[in-house]
Amino acid sequence: MVDLNRLLTDLTDESADLDALVAPLPAVDWQRRTPAPGWTVAHQIAHLAWTDHVARLAATDPAGFLASVSRAATDPGGFVDRGAEEFLAPPATLLARWRDGRTALAGALAAVPVGTTLPWYGTRMSPASMVTGRIMETWAHGQDVADALGVARTPTGRLRHVAHLGTRTLGHGFAAHGRAVPEAPVHVELTAPDGATWHFGPADAADRVTGPALDFCLLVTQRRHRADLALVATGPVADEWLDVAQAFAGPPGAGRQPGAVNAA
C-alpha cells in the first residue's frame, strides 16, 4: 500500500529544496527568463502556487474546482499561463503565498478519506497520485529555475517518484502526440543517484530503456532533448517513446532542442 505520509514528506522536502534556491534571490533575479517561453523565475513559482491552489480545491471544494475547469475550457491553450499570471506578486508576497498554499494542500490531502478519488483535468486521481504529480511538477519547474540561475542541482532519491510517473504515462505520451498507443510493454532500468538500480515494467519485455535516472526524469518532463541524454532504447516502441515521453497532463509541449537548455 502507498504510504501517503511518506509521499507528503518527499513533497515537502522537494519544495524546501526549491525554496532554498529562490528565497535568497534579489528581486532582479526573480525576473530572470527561464527555459519556458515567456516565463520568469517568478512565473515558475507562481505556477506552482496556482497548481497547489487548484489541487486543494479538488480536495476540499469540488464545486470550486469544477468552476476552474469550466474557466479552463474557455481557453485550453492558455489557462495554465493565465493561472501563473494571476498568482504573480512581488517576491516576498509570492514566496509566502507559495509556502502557505503548499502547506494547506498537504493538510487537505492528508485529510482525504481512504479510497476517495479527486477530480482533476480530464480524469480523477487518488491523493497519492496527486502528491506524486506535485513532486514531479515541483522538481521539473525547479529545474527550469536552476537552469535560469545556472545552478547544478544534486539529484536525490525523490527522482524515483518522477521516474515512476514517467513510466506510468507511456500511453499518454503517445496519445498526446496523436500516435497509436502501443500494446508492447517497455522495461525501464535506471541507475539511481545513490548507485542502486530502479526497475519499472515487465522484466521480460523485449523493448527496454536504460540509463541514469536523472536523464530519464529530464526526458519525461521535457527538460532535455533525448540527444543530450545517456538513455539507450532497445526496440521500436522504446525508441519511439523517447521521442514522445510526457509525464505531465495536457497537450505536448515543444520540448527542448538538442544542445539548447533554454530553447523550448
From TrEMBL:
Residues 12-146 form the Mycothiol-dependent maleylpyruvate isomerase metal-binding domain. Pfam families: MDMPI_N, Wyosine_form. InterPro entries: CHP03084 (IPR017518), DinB/YfiT-like (IPR034660), Maleyloyr_isom (IPR017517), MDMPI_metal-binding (IPR024344), tRNA_wybutosine-synth (IPR013917). It comes from the Bacteria. Residues 184-233 form the tRNA wybutosine-synthesis domain. This is TIGR03084 family metal-binding protein. It comes from Micromonospora zhanjiangensis.
